[in-house]
């Protein structure tokens, strides 16, 4: 069953801790993205990656880090430098090339809460 | 700068009434526009793309480059249309298939 899987569904973080959110896809998509969804703010891009071993900052990258060691995987680390990490995090993927955007496939999200 | 504006946060309509969600964009190049929908407890999913010019679940959207708009319309709202709707934009100069999203519209269809 093809798709994009995020884990865990819920994550609690203590102040000063780093946590890593997992995102895995078996769609053979080239590009992967991390968005943050806050009420009334829409979706804001954190990081994205077009190919393995390469990634770019999005609009709100401060306090986050990523890696792309495998095509299937794009984990997001929320570091202690992120001042307001409580949010819903969405991972997405898409095919690239051919001059058009096919639209994204989204994961089901991870809700991160700082306690 | 690439920007997507959805002016109304919350839209309440009666079942059977028409619904229109407004989306305006700012982009200097050739845009690709999308509507995404998020039903309660479900993941965000693509509703329609302007390039495919299709009608999904009775919804249509026409790209108006003169007015820089991509409004979503449905002539007769159904209860199952209650959801969060996001307009999104990408373009060649925005780069790399990045999507810029609006802040979303919460639609509530009243039985």
Please sum up the structure shown:
The complex is a heterodimer of chains A (115) and B (111). By secondary structure, chain A is mainly β.
Notes on the protein architecture:
- The complex is a heterodimer of chains A (115) and B (111).
- Chain A is mainly β and 115 residues long.
- Chain A has no helices and 11 strands.
- In chain A, the strands form 2 sheets. In chain A, strands 2, 4, 5, 6, 9, 10 and 11 form a 7-stranded mixed sheet that branches. A 4-stranded antiparallel sheet of chain A has the order 1-3-8-7, with no helix packed on it.
- Chain A is globular and about 45 Å long.
- The model of chain A has no long low-confidence stretch (mean pLDDT 92).
- With 111 residues, chain B is an all-beta fold.
- The radius of gyration of chain B is 14 Å and the shape is globular.
- The model of chain B has no long low-confidence stretch (mean pLDDT 90).
- The chains are: A mainly beta (115), B mainly beta (111).
- At the A-B interface, β4, β5 and β10 of A face β6 and β10 of B.
């Amino acid at each position: 069953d093809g798709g994009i899987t995020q884990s865990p569904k819920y994550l609690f973080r203590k102040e000063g801790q780093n946590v890593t959110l997992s995102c895995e896809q078996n769609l053979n998509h080239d590009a992967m993205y991390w968005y943050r969804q806050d009420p009334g703010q829409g979706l804001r891009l954190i990081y994205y990656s077009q190919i393995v071993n390469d990634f770019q900052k999005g609009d709100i990258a401060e306090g986050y880090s990523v890696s792309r060691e495998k095509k299937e995987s794009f984990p997001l680390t929320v570091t202690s430098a992120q001042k307001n990490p409580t949010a819903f995090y969405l991972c997405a993927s898409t095919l690239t090339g051919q001059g058009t955007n096919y639209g994204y496939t989204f994961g089901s999200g991870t809700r991160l809460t700082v306690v | 700068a690439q920007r997507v504006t959805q002016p109304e946060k919350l839209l309440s309509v009666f079942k059977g009434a028409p619904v229109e969600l407004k989306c305006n964009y700012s982009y200097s190049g050739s845009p690709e526009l999308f509507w995404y929908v998020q039903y309660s407890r479900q993941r965000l999913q693509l509703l329609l793309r302007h390039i495919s010019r299709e009608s999904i679940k009775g919804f249509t959207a026409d790209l108006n480059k003169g007015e820089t708009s991509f409004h979503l319309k449905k002539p007769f709202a159904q209860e199952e249309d209650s959801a969060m709707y996001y307009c999104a934009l990408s373009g060649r100069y925005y780069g790399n298939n990045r999507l810029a999203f609006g802040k979303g519209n919460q639609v509530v269809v009243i039985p």
